[in-house]
Amino acid sequence: MSISVFFVASQFGTRRLGPSLAVHRPMNCETPRVSVGRVLVRHLAFATGLAILLSIPTVVSAAARLHARTVIVVLIDGLSGSMVEAVPTPSLDRLAAEGAWTDEFVPTWPSISGATWVSLSTGCWPENHGVVTDKFLDPKRGLMDHDVDADWLTGCELLHQVAERQGVRAAVLGWWGQYSQTRGALASYVSRNHEAERARPRDINQYATGPERVDEILPYLGMPEGTRPRLILAHFRGPDIDAHFDGADAETTRAAVRRADAALGTLLEAISMLPDEDRIALLVLSDHGHVPVHSYVSVRRILSRHGIPALDVTTGSTAFLYFENLSEVDRAHDVLSRYEEFDVLRTSDLPEYARLGNGERVGELIVSAHPGYFTADADLIPWWLQPVLWWGPDVVEVPFLGRGIISNHGYPPHTPGVQGVFYAWGDGIEAAGRLGPVRMIDVHPTVTELLGLQSGRPVDGVALTNVMSASSEETGLPLR
């Protein structure tokens, strides 16, 4: 049994860590389960581990020093810089003090969860990876509705695909694309709740909270060399839902931030107890921030009022409009351009920040709500409010009858408040302090460089050399 298993088990015997973790699991299996005797072995493991550690020579050989680095990437859903500032966050504060960080983590557009996850994981713009938003039409596959199936990719490679292709095991926990409907699991290890996450991908409550996810991560840190994943990608439920319905500064949202930070503290403590703690890099980031809203724009009602024959596929703060008769596009653009609550964009003439391409998934026109206004999936509106979609006003103040979203995202990446956060800490990371803006597409090449791997094929981002120390290339693996 490896030293790391004994050592971590001795400290986390009650956190699902034990000697049974030394058994390798084949691809497409769930998180390793622990033997029922883990508590009984705790003291024995501690004594054995301590004896072994004390016998290790104080001078570490060059070969041992260059053994492979492990990279952990944690994505906290909906966390913004203002949320971090609002409550004590000792774990994030430590990462900032000892590493590099920014509260200007620039999302792709629309700044909505699924699309941004894919962009940061592939290092590609949506025009290249194909997941242009969380809900769109594909002429061959039909409606994509918040799905997390990797088969929706039309190009580029997810981080775990790149790692596995180059012989590096990955654990993918609640992360977009951990599974493919046609190919099965795309990593050596996937989350134990992956079936529920895939069955109801739009229901954030199907995903683990920070403490639950860390409890799932810890066993992997105790696995022996050869079976232990060197790339761990983990999603935290985070404060997103609380922010949507209670506000970014609500107590429920602040409590969610505190829980996420406490979970990170548990993870940092576990890392500090590993024999190879100095060979672990940790990236903590979010997919978007939040912007206060006061009014709902009923795109379907507007289309009906003006007799615009378009199918609207709406989510977040954007609506993609698909036309069977392209001769109707110009009139629709003229009519919709009269509204001051949103912009109407032609797919053939998108602004530079969009990077959606002009493929068939995008639609001919895009309604993009201004900050303060939002749109939403029509099928998420309660049945007793559905008549508003057809006979109500074009714009409705929220909350309506005590219900409704009061904070949202999806806006262009330069919109104040919509940026996320980014922290980099540990092996290979420079103590660079506060950074300027960091693009989400630059995460992928940064992680692959930390792992000593080639980036995906293709990749639009570039490695964040300003956060990586000179030793970051000393991974013990040749660049492929």
Structure write-up:
The strands form 6 sheets. Strands 1, 2, 5, 8, 9, 10, 20, 21 and 22 form a 9-stranded mixed β-sheet that branches. The protein has 3 domains: 3-54, no CATH class; 62-292 and 413-473, Alkaline Phosphatase, subunit A (3-Layer(aba) Sandwich), CATH 3.40.720; 295-405, Gyrase A, domain 2 (2-Layer Sandwich), CATH 3.30.1360. Helix 10 (210-221) runs parallel beside helix 12 and helix 11 (240-246) runs antiparallel to helix 12 (251-272). The two termini are 31 Å apart. It is globular. It has 480 residues and is of the alpha/beta class. The chain has 16 helices and 22 strands. Helix content is 29%, strand content 19%. It has helices at 3-11, 42-54, 62-65, 81-86, 90-98, 113-122, 126-129, 159-165, 194-199, 210-221, 240-246, 251-272, 299-305, 329-336, 387-391, 443-451, and strands at residues 70-76, 100-106, 135-138, 142-145, 170-173, 179-180, 184-185, 189-190, 231-236, 280-285, 291-292, 295-297, 310-315, 318-323, 342-346, 365-369, 373-374, 395-397, 407-408, 420-426, 433-434, 438-439.
In short:
With 480 residues, the protein is of the alpha/beta class.
Task: Give the helices and strands, then pairings.
Layout: H1 3-11, H2 42-54, H3 62-65, E1 70-76, H4 81-86, H5 90-98, E2 100-106, H6 113-122, H7 126-129, E3 135-138, E4 142-145, H8 159-165, E5 170-173, E6 179-180, E7 184-185, E8 189-190, H9 194-199, H10 210-221, E9 231-236, H11 240-246, H12 251-272, E10 280-285, E11 291-292, E12 295-297, H13 299-305, E13 310-315, E14 318-323, H14 329-336, E15 342-346, E16 365-369, E17 373-374, H15 387-391, E18 395-397, E19 407-408, E20 420-426, E21 433-434, E22 438-439, H16 443-451
Parallel strand pairs: 1-9, 1-10, 2-21, 2-22, 5-8, 5-9, 12-17
Antiparallel strand pairs: 2-20, 3-4, 6-7, 10-20, 11-19, 12-18, 13-14, 14-16, 15-16
